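dumping this here before i forget
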Amino acid sequence: MPALLQGMSKFATNNLKTMSQKETARKQQLATKFIHAGAEPDPSTGAIMTPIYQTSTYVQSAPGVNQGFEYARSQNPTRKALETALAVIENGRFGLAFSSGVAATDAVIKLLSPGDEVIAASDMYGGTYRLFTKVFEKFGIKFKYIDTSNAENVRSAVTVNTKLIWIETPTNPLMNITDIAAVAAISREAGAWLCVDNTFASPYLQNPLDLGADIVMHSSTKYLGGHSDVIQGALVMNDEKLKDQLYFIQKSCGAVPGPMDCFLVMRGIKTLHVRMKQHCENGEIIAHYLRNHPKVERVYWCGFTDHHNYDIAKAQMRGFGGMMSFTLKDDSIEAANKVLSSTQLFSLAESLGGVESLINHPASMTHASIPREERLKNGLTDGLIRLSVGIEDANDLIEDLKQAIG
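structure:
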């Protein structure tokens, strides 16, 4: 067999092996899936962990004859292993890794053309809103911001120009829940893609592709990495044509993660199930503690039975997670700042989803790019405080909040 055909045959065999592994993994229980997804012993050494292939290019035996890798912006074995893992844990066929969650979002919007319309959740991460309004609006892409917690709002907003529906569920930071299956049905009727930002839930709690979504987006920086030591994003999908379009954007625009970052996210995925169990347990304890605190006005957490869409959350999620927000009865920036500056275990910082607990002020931090009038209209007040409840001892976390709130 000519050398070129031998190289192509080897690459095709490897791809078939990867697809077979994915099919097997889909049948496994969550804990097994997270530990073994994408992980194969290194064929040259038997190393159980995927090596960090710190290389920019790959030697070819003849022009066009390679072992499936040509240039590291296009492919990298460590990244390929991670992308396989991403697909498996989201019950998808294809995964793509990006240099950040925003870069992954950017790639999805680049599927569109001037004049196309996006329906987006009015309560969303400030960085997504900034990307939409400050970068893509000037290229003629139109965005409608609505309350997606009522699927009929989405139906009413659809026009012939709607090409993408973008939702977060739970939302950042008000923990609103959207019925993924209902919105997926609407998107199919409209001939539009549905992309779900699944960062807050993680694949442990929710799998949007199973509910009809076309694309799942993650800021892998958060729960997938889990240790506040990496910046990365991900997209997962089932449709091969859509994958090819997104891969072309990934390769052409170059917002790819390095192999060390891919290694860190793969390592994080292996413990996602045990971390998320503790996040959920601690989250429930902290949410109920805050709700019963005499100085707390309101707690936003989707696990309360009187949450607006509790039944939907319970149906499409396996648990309610460790993310929540709350306001004090003195809903002033001064009162919020006192709490934000007084915690000792809850670190005042951007981001979320790490093993350590974080406290955040959305109005001045993660959502500062959203105009104040828009924030207030959506219920995001100046005094809102967001918590990412970590996996420390819950009693210690309660003591920290007790002394900070007073």
